[in-house]
Each structure stands twice: as C-alpha cells, then as structure tokens.
C-alpha cells in the first residue's frame, strides 16, 4: 500500500466509525444527520492528529538543539 492509499483507508475507517458512533449514541441521530456530522468531524479529527504529531516532532527537535543541559542531566 502506498502512503496515499494508507491515509485514504484510515480516513474512510475513521469516517465509518464516526457515523456509527453518531447514529447509535445516546442522542440517537438519524442516518442522514450521522453521515453529515461524521463528514464534518472526520477532517477535524485528522487535522488534530496531524497537529499533535507535528508539535511532538518540533518538541523533540527543540530538545535536541537545547544548548544548556536539562536540570536532571547536570552533574552535581
């Protein structure tokens, strides 16, 4: 599987899961409403995952570039 296909499969699986969750949640939305809500929530969930991954990568990079050692790494 290429990266594009893997991402598409992941997005489709997330969409299907969100449709089922919205349909059978305690509120009991109809199928049409559940499909529309999942259509809105899927890109938002994917973006939040991407943002979390990007922030973590930047934090790791910043940690490697730190000029002063961390307090727990200092010799006493």
What does this molecule look like?
Keywords: Membrane, Transmembrane, Transmembrane helix. The protein is an all-alpha fold and 76 residues long. The protein has one domain (3-64). Helix content is 74%, strand content 0%. It is built from two helices and no strands. The protein is elongated and about 60 Å long. The mean pLDDT is 86.
Low-confidence stretches: none
Percentage of residues in helical conformation: over 70%
The largest pleated sheet is described as: none
Shape: elongated
**How many helices in DSSP terms?**
2
Q: What share of residues are in beta strands?
A: under 5%
Return Rg in Å: 20 Å
Report the end-to-end length measured between terminal Cα atoms: 52 Å
Q: Mean pLDDT, rounded to whole units?
A: 86
Transmembrane segments: 7-25, 31-51
Keywords: Membrane, Transmembrane, Transmembrane helix
For this entry, give a set of tags:
single chain; 76 residues; mainly alpha; elongated; membrane; transmembrane helix
Short description:
The protein has 76 residues and is mainly α.
Task: Note the topology.
Layout: H1 3-23, H2 31-65
Helix pairs in contact: 1-2
């Amino acid at each position: 599987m290429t990266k594009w296909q893997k991402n598409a499969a992941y997005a489709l699986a997330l969409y299907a899961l969100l449709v089922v969750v919205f349909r059978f949640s305690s509120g009991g939305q109809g199928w049409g409403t559940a499909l529309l809500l999942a259509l809105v929530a899927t890109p938002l969930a994917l973006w939040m995952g991407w943002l979390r991954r990007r922030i973590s990568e930047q934090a790791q990079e910043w940690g490697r570039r730190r000029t002063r050692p961390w307090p727990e790494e200092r010799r006493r």
